[in-house]
Automatic annotation (TrEMBL):
It comes from Candidatus Venteria ishoeyi. This is DNA phosphorothioation-associated methyltransferase. NCBIfam families: dnd_rel_methyl. SUPFAM superfamilies: S-adenosyl-L-methionine-dependent methyltransferases.
Length: 675
């Protein structure tokens, strides 16, 4: 058999997991392959005397006259089985190469196992359920880095999950209890501890920012009934806690991270409150997490004033803060920066270097790069082809890191430094070979993107008003040198970008440039899904970043609205945004940059939530259910029943008009009822 015949047979395969460069088939489906492929495989194994090689997966290359036998002995017993060894066969030359991964700390793994089996295989429902759980958890959003075990496990933890007995287990969201009514006015501080059945919101932010990865000790100052401690200890984290009522016998301990969670707001004595904050910070060796209840004048009016706070109906003291007030209180008390990570939650770093690393990562966008594992031009030199075949995994790994960094990595930024040096002689030689192999153009795009990330970060540092840092982390020094030459030039570029944010004409031009990412309301605002923020021009990323400086991360919002003229950013939260054609508005947060204030509006209870019409205008084509949503929106417009040019009709009027005209919504379908 020659390569053209082989290539045609591969193209016609209807079974297996199909990727751009190969098709993966489980051995149980071998007899369902075309007879010519079966013969080729079995004859090759016999001719090369590979009958003793125990393999479970066959990889048919699409671009080369090659196939591979892959040993995944735990295919059916492990959720994401590890590759033990591989045998790559060059069918043209009649040669093979064996590679063992038994000693590897970061071996390749398998996902979506059901795609490699025949449709009637009994294990497919089990594998499909796991794949669906991974998709819902967002684990497949960036597929280029999940093919190795350690990368995969880190991603699972970063997304807030743990792999337990082959199943994804989530640390669920905070459950808060409502306060019952009582009549006396004595302060009962012991009643302020809320029983939780999952992680509190401050702990969730630590998980989101990868601080609950097992590398940091944690002390919960004011741990209440200890629910967070039990949950984290169950995941083998080094954690302890103190509470004057529920855990009084536990001594206060220093730790990398100290959580002062919703403690300040229940202390009625201002001096005791201040002493508590400062003592908690003394215990924090790396970062202090401070959280408190937020409230406004409307909320305070419901309670009886007491000192600088209020008495609740449960006879507990509460000191409600605004976001800006809490930030100012922490900073004036500790003399350090308070970084907003969510409403009512701030991080205070002991070391300015740790603070800079955190902030710079916060504004770094995770991007998808094309041609990740394939060269951009035909490989002309036999020596270069042979080197790639021999070290494919190292090529792909180093290329992935280089694209993430946008520059040549140093040894401390790599997990496989020694292997790379053994294969190529030095990191620089390896880097040059890899960039030349995959394409300089793609790498230059990565350089430009990461340089823009750094410019956005530095611009936001200037906006924050914090004192300039006297020392930079080593990683930031390397970034600055690679893209700007020196720190002075980087600061000048950042200043130029920050000044541009104050220019309405430039904001409007940037919104017009980015209108394909969302919906542009002429001369008013650009609204888009939060997943598109990283695709925005740098000036708009800084505009939104200025809002996050005050509010915290915007991950909980579905839509982001950039107001062109008023200096505002609005965040909208909808009910089940991804899975409904007409999601209803639950919460709106308006961040006023000029006033440095935040307004919260909720649309539950007595309010009638407003549906979002024409959702397809706000979401990217790769968003879940995009095609269904687009068809739904087109059909809704064709009815001619509504004016959807602005916000559209109220919910009750909309559904009444549909019913009157015998229409109803079924999932993502708008159907006309029969008489």
């Amino acid at each position: 058999m020659d390569f053209p015949v082989y290539k045609n047979l591969i193209k016609q395969l209807v079974i297996g997991k199909k990727l751009p460069d190969a098709i993966y088939v489980h051995v149980s489906a071998l007899e369902h392959l075309p007879e010519a492929l079966q013969t080729l495989l079995l004859d090759t194994i016999q001719r090369l005397q590979l009958q003793q090689f125990d393999y479970q997966i066959i990889k048919f290359s699409k671009r080369d006259f090659k196939l591979s036998l892959l040993a995944y002995p735990d295919f059916f017993t492990e959720a994401f089985p590890v590759l033990h060894s591989s045998c790559t066969i060059d069918l043209m030359k009649g040669r093979y190469r064996l590679t063992s991964y038994l000693e590897s700390k970061n071996p390749p793994i398998l996902h979506r196992k059901e795609t490699m089996l025949l449709a009637e295989h009994p294990d497919i429902p089990r594998f499909q359920a796991l794949t669906q759980a991974c998709e819902q958890a967002g684990l497949f959003e960036n597929p280029r880095s999940i093919g190795f075990k350690q990368n995969w496990l880190r991603l699972i933890r970063r997304k807030g999950y743990q792999l337990v007995d082959g199943q994804l287990q989530q640390l669920a969201q905070l459950v808060e209890a409502a306060e019952p009514i009582a009549q006396d006015t004595a302060i009962h501080r012991h009643k302020t501890a809320i029983r939780r059945y999952a992680l509190s919101k401050p702990m969730q932010t630590l998980m989101q920012h990868d601080y609950l990865n097992g590398h940091y000790s944690l002390f919960d100052y004011g741990c209440g009934q200890g629910d967070d401690i039990r949950e984290l200890a169950a995941h083998d984290l080094q954690v302890s806690g103190f509470d004057p009522v529920h855990q009084p016998d536990i001594s206060k301990q220093a730790a990398d991270i100290v959580n002062l969670g919703f403690v300040l707001n229940v202390i009625e004595d201002p001096q005791e409150r201040l002493a508590c904050l400062r003592e908690a910070f003394k215990l924090a060796q790396r970062v202090l997490v401070v959280s408190a209840m937020l409230g406004n004048a409307k909320l305070l009016a419901k309670f009886q004033r007491f000192g600088d706070g209020v008495l609740t109906q449960r006879n507990t003291f509460q000191k409600y803060y605004s976001q800006g007030e809490l930030k100012a209180y922490i900073e004036s008390s500790l003399g350090l920066n308070a970084i907003a990570v969510a409403p009512g939650i701030f991080y205070v770093f002991r070391d300015a270097l740790d603070e800079q690393v955190f902030l710079s990562k916060r504004f770094q966008v995770r991007r998808e790069w094309r041609q990740l594992t394939q060269p951009t031009k035909p490989i002309q030199l036999k020596q270069q082809q042979n080197l790639f075949d021999k070290h494919r995994q190292l090529y792909e790994y180093l290329w992935e890191v280089a694209l993430d960094l946008g520059r040549c990595p140093v040894s401390s930024e790599l997990e496989q430094t020694e292997l790379i040096r053994q294969a190529f002689g030095s990191l620089r030689k390896a880097f040059d070979r890899v960039v030349n192999f995959y394409g300089v153009d793609v790498f230059e795009q990565a350089q430009q993107a990461r340089a823009e990330d750094l410019r956005v970060y530095l611009a936001l540092e200037k906006f924050s008003g914090r004192k300039p840092y006297t020392h930079l982390p080593e990683s930031l020094k390397r970034d600055v040198k690679a893209w700007f030459g020196d720190y002075k030039n980087a600061q000048a570029k950042a200043t130029q970008l920050l000044f541009a944010v104050g220019n309405v004409k430039q904001i409007q031009a940037a919104c017009e440039q980015a209108q394909e990412l969302g919906y542009l309301q002429a001369h008013k605002a650009l609204t888009l899904h939060r997943s598109q923020i990283g695709q925005l021009p740098a000036i708009l990323r800084v505009y939104i970043g200025c809002a996050t400086q005050l509010y915290g991360d915007v991950d909980s919002a579905d839509l982001i609205k950039i107001h062109i003229y008023s200096g505002k950013v609005s965040l909208m939260v909808y009910d089940d945004f991804a899975n409904k054609p007409l999601p209803e508005l639950q919460e709106r947060i308006k961040i006023k940059l000029r006033e440095q204030a935040i307004d919260f509006f909720d649309y539950v209870g007595e309010y009638q939530p407003q549906p979002l019409y024409l959702k397809s205008l706000y979401i990217p084509p790769d968003f879940p259910n995009y095609e269904k949503q687009h068809k739904f929106d087109e059909k809704l417009l064709k009815t001619g029943l509504f004016d959807l040019s602005a916000y559209g009709p109220r919910r009750d009027a909309f559904y009444a008009a549909l019913a009157l005209n015998k229409y109803q919504v079924r999932g993502f379908q708008l159907v006309k009822r029969r008489k």
